[in-house]
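Entry for adenosine-5'-diphosphate complex. Fields follow.
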Amino acid sequence: MSLCLCVKEETVKAIVLFGSPGSGKGTQAKMLMERLGVPHISTGDMLREGIRQGDDLGSGVAARMHSGALVSDDIVNRLVEHRISQSDASSGFILDGYPRTLAQAEHLCEWLDGRGIREVVIHLAVDYNVIIARLTGRRQCPRCGTLYNIASQPPRVDGACDLDGEKLAIREDDSEGVIRERLAAYERQTHPVLRFYEKAGRRIVQVDGSFDLPNAVFQKIREAVDFDDCSKNGR
Ligand code: ADP
């Protein structure tokens, strides 16, 4: 069985989850991955993993991430292209945190168009103050990646992951000054990507993710995008 998505009766295989830091992209991406059975590809996770493993990603990647600035387009484009070319992504994939600049968006569109793959951009729009509260309260399990928030989604036991008991960590770039820099980079470099998609007439779904719990936001995505089993109708 190959699962795919329908947007306005068109089959799409690539989901681009778009939104500012703290908009809930990672949480929704994980829910989509579980529902659709296609890989969740997060450039932030890939870069952090590369640094942990000591990969030769290119110069200054760790320093740029720690300061809240974006990593160079070349490095990220290369990483993503390699990942979405792998066989487990052939029936579809979910991009989280990419594209983040106009050059990345152009690169991705060209790659997808060249293969006849259609995408849908899901824009998670979230109120600025909500974002600040979320990012400053965010905690993550370093082992399984599960996200928590000390205000809105605390773990059952203070400071420990519900799933594996691992001590929860604060991401290095979740300090207040770095959060401000990440949000500034979003406004400056990433928000214009939305205009690019609009002007190019690509499929964009707007979802308000400010005040609902993750399940309710996921429900809104489901209402906007029809999850379908392609094998039933031969698409
Ligand atoms: P958030 O969306 O909360 O900022 P991410 O995990 O997506 O978190 O990204 C963390 C950092 O990784 C970014 O601040 C940036 O330095 C780097 N990064 C992630 N994705 C990209 C990208 N597509 N282009 C450039 N840098 C990126």
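NOTE: Residues 21-22, 43-44, 47, 64-65, 68-71, 76, 97-98, 100, 104, 173, 182 surround adenosine-5'-diphosphate (CB under 6 Å).
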